[in-house]
Write a structure and sequence with these properties.
The complex is a heterodimer of chains A (299) and B (179). Chain A has 299 residues and is an alpha+beta fold. Chain A has helices at 2-36, 38-52, 57-73, 79-114, 279-283, 291-298, and strands at 123-132, 140-143, 156-158, 163-170, 175-179, 186-192, 196-201, 209-211, 224-227, 239-245, 251-255, 264-269. Among the domains of chain A are: 76-114; 123-269, Rod shape-determining protein MreC, domain 1 (Thrombin, subunit H, Beta Barrel). Chain A has 6 helices and 12 strands. In chain A, helix 1 crosses helix 2. The radius of gyration of chain A is 27 Å and the shape is globular. In chain B, 71% of the residues lie in helices and 0% in strands. Chain B is globular and about 50 Å long. Classes of the chains: A alpha+beta (299), B mainly alpha (179).
Chain lengths: 299, 179
């Protein structure tokens, strides 16, 4: 009897070992599959996230709000100074607002005089931030708009102040935003006022670095960094931040977006520009066909 | 008696599963996106091993596999690799559990420190071999240190709040565990 039990235990243990072996091999197989056929497994990931996360977003958003409230409570201590400061700032901003309004009117008048057609391609969808990346090595956010709302991979996102990141991975109702601080983020930018182009690269710290700059001497701390629109990655002229000097004279970007409190993100709807393949026929219609049909056949 | 042991172990599994889901949930709550100087510790790993080295039957392989695979997918890790490593590490720790039982907390901490280090190094080496972009080495080491500092906190939580404690020799004999 005792012998039998011992046998049973040994038998059970070896079966267990085989099962664990199979499980580990299957998991490693999944990793290899991910390595080989990345887009398919990533879309599986998107689908999974899309199923899991919205089912508890009722708890995610209040949890974030509550924690933020507790954090903000510290700042009540110096509320008086803050109030004074805000008042001064408000006065300054009122002055700016007046200037902006006047400029806007002037601009509208000039545009009207010139009969300019405003570029209609920039419109946006706003999404609520659902989750963090949850990993210390990745900087991303999940927002609650997805393929259902027409979001596509590669679109730019911003908060009210400036650029935040790029859509990468779209599920049905959610999409992932790779933030500018993520170490995989590379954005072509222009540095104003010198007008030089460069690449802004995330390094997993709060300040992305400027790379591939032709003449760094022309760039000073405080210069504005805007997206350049090169390579059709992003629409041009969206503010990303300001240049600051890092340790050892490295050029860093202080981001304009308020990364501490990202709650809503705007996804900029950008449609690719129409490409005009054969300019000749557009300028001088081929005899015998109407311009309309020429254009149609070009497409 | 057999029945109560069985229901107790299912209850323990439930507690482990819920704690793991809670950890995942908390790590996903969006609280400011400014990178901080210290990375977050790997609470899930600490929780798994803190319970495993106390009551191995609360942390069955399938549950570890499920939880870590879900975490792999949700936390944007290459899926499968870290789960496989954690399962292997768990199985090794399970065979050593009876030795660590009376050795005291310091030895347990050192044991977990060694196996986590090995798991992280293997993970990183495999990623390097597979030419996957990976986090810089110093950041991983910082993450490792923070996780090991967080481990006593998790053990404290398991011991005093979840009341999951190591077997006494008496219990171990009663439940037919190896001494």
């Amino acid at each position: 009897m005792a012998y039998n039990r011992y046998q049973d235990q040994r038998y059970g243990r070896s079966i267990r070992r085989v099962l664990i072996g199979v499980l580990v091999v299957a998991l490693l197989g999944l990793f290899v599959l991910w390595r080989i056929d990345n887009p398919r497994v990533e879309s599986l990931r998107n689908a999974l996230v899309d199923r899991v996360v919205p089912s508890f977003d009722w708890a995610l958003v209040p949890a974030a709000k509550a924690t933020r409230m507790v954090r903000d409570f510290d700042s009540y201590a110096n509320i008086y100074e803050q109030n004074q400061e805000l008042r001064r700032e408000l006065q300054r901003l009122k002055g700016w607002r007046e200037a902006a309004l006047q400029l806007e009117q002037q601009n509208a008048k000039l545009l009207d005089l010139n009969n300019v057609r405003i570029d209609p391609k920039l419109s946006f969808i706003t999404g609520i931030v659902l989750t963090d990346s949850g990993s210390p090595f990745r900087r991303s956010a999940l927002i609650n708009v997805g393929a259902r709302d027409g979001v596509l991979d590669g679109w730019a996102t911003m908060d009210g102040f400036g650029l935040v990141g790029r859509i990468s991975g779209v599920g049905r109702t959610t999409s992932r935003v790779i933030l500018l601080t993520d170490s995989n983020s590379r954005i072509p930018v222009t540095i104003q006022p010198s007008g030089q182009t460069a690449i802004m690269a995330g390094v997993n710290s709060a300040f992305p670095v400027i790379e591939f700059l032709e003449t760094p001497d022309l760039v000073h701390p405080g210069d504005r960094v805007v997206s350049s629109g090169d390579g059709l990655v992003f629409p041009p002229d969206i503010l990303a931040g300001q240049i600051v000097l890092g340790r050892g004279g490295r050029l860093l970007v202080q981001l304009a977006a308020d990364y501490q409190r990202l709650e809503f993100l705007r996804v900029l709807r950008t449609s690719p520009e129409e490409k005009i393949g054969i300019s000749d026929r557009l300028v001088r219609p081929v005899t015998g066909t109407t311009p309309a049909s020429t254009v149609a056949s070009d497409e | 008696m057999n029945d109560s042991v069985l229901s107790r172990s299912w209850f323990g599994r439930l507690v482990f599963g819920l704690c793991a889901l809670l950890v995942l949930f908390v790590s996903l709550v969006p609280l400011g996106f400014t990178p901080r100087f210290t990375p977050r510790p790997d609470w899930l790993f600490a929780l798994t091993f803190a319970i495993l080295l106390r009551r191995p039957e609360f942390v069955p392989v399938w549950l570890v596999g499920g939880v870590f695979l879900l975490a792999d997918f949700l936390l944007l890790r290459p899926p499968g690799l870290w789960t496989a490593l954690v399962i292997l590490t768990c199985e090794f720790a399970r065979t050593q559990e009876y030795r660590l039982r009376d050795l005291g907390y310091a030895m347990e901490w050192a044991f977990v420190a060694v196996i986590l280090f090995l798991a992280l190094v293997t993970h990183r080496s495999v990623l390097t071999l597979a030419l996957v972009p990976r986090a810089p080495f110093d950041e991983i080491m910082l993450h490792y240190l923070v996780t090991m500092l967080a481990y006593p906190v998790v053990v404290f939580f398991c011991y005093f709040i979840l009341r999951i404690r190591k077997f006494t020799p008496d219990e171990a004999t009663r439940l037919g565990r190896r001494l």
